[in-house]
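step=predict obj=Transcriptional regulator n=125
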Amino acid sequence: MTTLTDAPLPACDTDCRHPDAVARAQAALPSSAAVEAASALLKAVADPTRLRLLAALAAEELCVHDLALVAGISESAASHQLRLLRAHRLVGYRKAGRTVYYHLADQHVTLLLQNALDHAQERER
């Protein structure tokens, strides 16, 4: 069975060059620093365990113990993953006594997560 990913990619029939289009595309590129930062952020999200933690936090604020239970990992592993997510500013936290509660950092993270999951689920259909 042939899938879309197995089909050959179409190519130009000629050595076509569109200098205006190339110039517009180059002008639209983000800075190298922005590309590097976005790449690092996407790498942080690209781990199934971290993605589960983020999806759980999209539902509600949770402590490390509860996040570990939801993700099916140890509290130590959850803490390690949360440190990485905090370093990339994907999650925030608040302390209530000795308990630390985590939440998604902002609406950008919520949209990134929702778009990625929506896109993946569309491909399942």
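step=describe
The chain has a mean pLDDT of 91.
step=end
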